[in-house]
Amino acid sequence: MSLVNCPECQQLYKELDEYIDSVKGNTGVLINVLHKAQEIFGYLSEELQQHVSEKLDIPLSQVYGVVTFYNFFSMKPKGKNQIKVCLGTACYVKGADKILERLQDELNVEMNEPTSDGLFSIHAVRCLGACSMAPVVLIGEDDYYGRVSPDEVSKILDKYRRAE
Amino acid sequence: FDSGGSVEATKSTSEVRIVLRNAGSIDPRNLEEYIALDGYQGLAKALRMTPEEVIEELKKSNLRGRGGAGFPTGLKWEFTQKVRSDEKFVICNADEGEPGTFKDRLIMEGDPHSVIEGMVIAGYAVGASKGYIYIRGEYFESVSSLRDAISKAYEYGLLGQSVLGTEFSFDLSVRLGAGAYVCGEETALIESIEGKSGRPRLKPPYPPVSGLYGKPTVVNNVETFACVPPIIDKGAGWFRSIGTQSSPGTKVFSLCGDLVKRGIVEVPMGTSVRDLVHKFGGGIPKGRTLKMVQTGGAAGTFIKPEEMDAELDFDSFKKSGASLGSGVILAIDETHCAVDIAKNLMEFFAHESCGKCSPCREGTRVIVYILDEFSKGRGTVEMFNQLYDISETMEESSFCGLGQSVPIPLRSILDRFKDEFLSHLNSPGCPVGVCEFDKPEKKKR
Ligand SMILES: NC(=O)C1=CN([C@@H]2O[C@H](COP(=O)(O)OP(=O)(O)OC[C@H]3O[C@@H](n4cnc5c(N)ncnc54)[C@H](O)[C@@H]3O)[C@@H](O)[C@H]2O)C=CC1
Ligand SMILES: Cc1cc2nc3c(=O)[nH]c(=O)nc-3n(C[C@H](O)[C@H](O)[C@H](O)COP(=O)(O)O)c2cc1C
Ligand code: SF4
Ligand code: FES
Question: What is this model's ipTM?
Fold first, then answer.
């Protein structure tokens, strides 16, 4: 799933560059640019970081430092559907670890690695700000699942499998 | 679910709503609805006052920072106002990441203009012409809500050149966080807005003297800003008539964990933990017994059911050992093990330690190691005591508030559940049966 060397990339780079041009000159925009880059490309490859570094005229070492500091940024491809399991205390007391265990069993995959079909990856996160619905699982940007029980896990996954 | 509306707001007759005066009852995307309910009246009034008068009113109200530390807001603004500088900034700390806290999100998604209005008033009072709202990257809906509200405020002349036709100008934009808990610490947050890795700076100097790009900067929490417009509009006296002497006004609480009714409530400062758990939270479900309550968030205190008469305000930690912090009430019932809870919490801190200073970087790791040993039946009395030694070192020599406050929850749970920790040393082991001594563990992070 290397997006970087594909022909469509020209288009993706163009989209990113348009965004960079619109914010360039403002101070401290690196993080917003990286957000945009990850949104467009899915992850921040070395090549992409190099590109951002040149476009913003910021040393590559600084770009790399920022990418590795923040949990939100990833240098590896993630699954098409990112499954975020909240392990914050409020979710933990409601059995979040059991949900995580079930997910790992169902998908048979390491944390933060995409499944072999590229469909899913599992990520442990801190509080998602929906603690009243604990335990909380977030898939993609806004599919929140609250009060999840381990037995519901496979049903939830099926929804995304069917969408293929 | 639609993330905005679904953060359940538990309504009750004894709630007092200042911050959440509109949340849930107006359309947050419709500025006219906000204006119809006295929105931007506080700003209009402030602009007729001198900056000094605005600050005086806030000082009289004794509004204290809702981000957790309770520093007097009027004083913070006064410091910032008094420093001479060609440029000053106002920052809203919306990096809400304390596990169990979801109040700022409800405010941003339910009533974004209350935050914007508070920030414009701050800009006028301290002489700043630029503001930033730093929002957690994961709060997609909050980001969209605030961006929409900001663009409408520009359309109506409430932001930008000559606010409401006066000579005062103020620009406002949103900056995204990227998933680092430490970026909620104000100086780390400032580094992050500058586009760098969010590692804390040495304090003092505090942001009012040297903040964003070294310029005088006001940093306040979302809830703090949302309190400002009604204070200016209705007066300091009105605000002081609510809450306690030392901590006037209301506090928004996030109720979570093993409670019948989980959600957000806004009550006068000084409300007891008991009322929050039983009256507002509906007590403990499934006929189970309450074992402990964590108040104040991850960095807050664990208390036992018999301590629940503690009335929460900014002084309650000193008075009764229960901290207010960011307003979390996390109820934990008898089915949970104290060692396991402590371990989960300390894993969080170890994961979020930014690594800048060794007491915190190493301290949190050793704490997790020891608690893990306890959960596997391999703890010792020496190790238990060592947890107190590490706490002392971390408290005294950590560089920022993250490391400094790890000992607060740790000691409070060790003090209160010493017997339970020590019973993990001998068979039959974990009294609740949560810690299975020979179960292999999966990698979680
Ligand atoms: N809301 C949340 O999600 C979280 C909140 N917290 C809270 O954060 C608190 C610790 O925050 P810190 O900023 O480290 O506390 P702090 O005590 O260093 O500062 C509190 C505020 O007062 C200001 N201040 C203090 N002394 C000052 C002075 N002499 N001159 C000018 N300004 C001054 C600081 O600039 C800051 O805005 C804890 O109490 C904790 O409850 C911690 C984690 C998460
Ligand atoms: C590790 C750490 C995380 C913090 N996270 C937040 C946060 O998410 N939101 C917040 O308002 N304050 C947070 N704070 C407190 C801020 O440093 C600062 O005190 C606050 O924004 C000041 O605003 P206030 O005076 O309105 O409370 C955090 C502090 C520490 C040490
Ligand atoms: S106390 Fe922890 S979070 Fe704070 S600077 Fe030190 S390592 Fe970083
Ligand atoms: S602790 Fe899981 S959503 Fe808050």
Answer: 0.93
